[in-house]
Amino acid sequence: MAGYILREDQPNIVLPAQQADRLIGRGDGDAALLYLCLLRADRGVTAQELQRRLKWSQLRLHAAETALQELGLIDRPPEQKPPEPAQERPVYTADDLTDLLTGDAGFRMLVPQTEEKLGKRLKTADLQILAGLYDDLGLPADVIYLLVCHCVTRSEERYGPGRRPTLRQIEKEGYHWAQRGLFDQESASRYLRDWNVRRSAMSRYMQVLGLGDRRPVESEERYITDWMDKGFPPETVALAYDKTVFYKKELNWRYLNGILRRWHENGWHTEEEVRQSDSRKPSRREEKKDDSRMEKYMKW
């Protein structure tokens, strides 16, 4: 690519270098675009306005918003549990499915590909779920196929060769993908590459937690994935584990997660940062209050 210098006579948007570095380091185009849109608005805007301007779905906007919150570029709202698929899934009639199968080439090709990967003929209920992912949630056919392949891989790793996921399980993972903004093949492929790296690293986290070489169960994997997302290496998790066992006399996942959430809010992620914070020891009275101060961080 040739070098470019952009000069405009129009009004400018000022973006501090530190903020630009965070956005570049994140590598999330949707987050960067949303941040530019917010700066350009120069006023309070609603989610509906942003969806119209960016031509995004609600979940795509939510994924970009979450990325900006994790970067510390916008404030976090009070924590809310993401909606479950069942709360948002529309009902597709037989006529709706027929219209999709006859009028949409992408969906028509997706159905036999999914059947081949799952090794079964899709029933009406399965087609309704697949239609919801494609038509309502807005995942493209090529992304849904990657999703199905990913779920098959996970199912075989967890339950053994030949085991296949249900469409409900695929739907649940599909909502997770949508919340992460995986609406194109490039971002989905990047997520899968990252997932493979994380899967390899997962064993190291299990070891520092004293759980040996076994694969984590689903709830354990959810915790560890969240710690990876927040930027905690295994060495820092080991420090949190040490504190957990000291106070609780055993591994308590909620308590350990609370410690890491508190460190994340304070910007402590490396072993060195945590040890430096520990060097400023609290008073004995503050130490006795440790459990009560941890309560607000122990929500999952």
From TrEMBL:
Residues 217-277 form the DnaB/C C-terminal domain. Residues 271-300 are annotated as: Disordered. InterPro entries: DnaB/C_C, DnaD-like_sf. Pfam families: DnaB_2. Belongs to the DnaB/DnaD family. This is DnaB/C C-terminal domain-containing protein.
